[in-house]
Design a protein that fits this description.
about 160 residues, mainly alpha
Length: about 160
């Protein structure tokens, strides 16, 4: 749609470099802004669901609804803070990737620098996704403060990659 003819057949080529990438960037700003708000509600399901799964793994008697709400009461705060942190990091890295795409479209001679930026952003996403999952499982198993959860998750990740 960005190279369609305008009115009498004159193609609109000048000045549209990076338009598609800029639209993706603007849409992702809105998406991650809304996802940050929705993560308060997502945390309810995650905290209750992980608590029920933990009880199933431990072969305890499971009453799904009552255990779900018990898990929400016990773990909502740690799961919410972890989810907000992960959403913030995911949003910033995705916007960094989108901004690199915009800059590569506008400056084709500097693609190496922006490709390195994209690779670093993807590595951050993978790293913090694993840390986030560790934080949720540790938060459901142990009663730890948020910064202890974060510290222990990073330590477990370092042990994993040794």
């Amino acid at each position: 749609p960005f190279s369609q003819n305008i009115a009498i057949g004159y193609p609109a080529f000048p000045g549209i470099a990076g338009t598609a990438e800029a639209l993706v960037y603007e849409n992702n700003i809105l998406t991650f802004g809304l996802l940050f708000i929705i993560s308060f509600f997502i945390s309810i399901g995650i905290s209750g669901g992980f608590y029920v799964m933990r009880n199933m793994v431990w072969t305890e008697g499971v009453f799904v609804m009552s255990d779900f709400w018990t898990g929400v009461k016990k773990n909502y705060l740690s799961v919410m803070l972890s989810t907000l942190l992960f959403t913030l990091i995911l949003g910033l890295t995705t916007l960094s990737i989108n901004l690199s795409d915009v800059q590569m479209a506008l400056n084709p001679d500097q693609t190496v620098l922006f490709t390195i930026t994209k690779i670093i952003s993807y590595v951050f996403i993978v790293f913090f996704a694993i840390v986030y999952l560790y934080m949720i499982t540790l938060g459901n198993t142990y009663e730890l403060k948020f910064f202890k959860l974060l510290k222990n998750s990073v330590i477990h990740l370092q042990i994993l990659f040794r």
